[in-house]
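Everyone, describe these structure tokens:
***
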Amino acid sequence: MKNFKWVFALYSLLALLSMFSIGISVGLRSIPGILISILLLILVMGFGFKTKKKMRDQGLL
């Protein structure tokens, strides 16, 4: 754990929060909340994978 990447910790925390918000929205029976949370999860995961690929291509991982 020599080279900890804080950006990936941030992405994972945001993804976790959006998963929590999906569960909360289901509990509240809020269709817009569910859809926004799913969209947010897809965006965060996409940015995370994009960042990982970019860093791997640059030789930083």
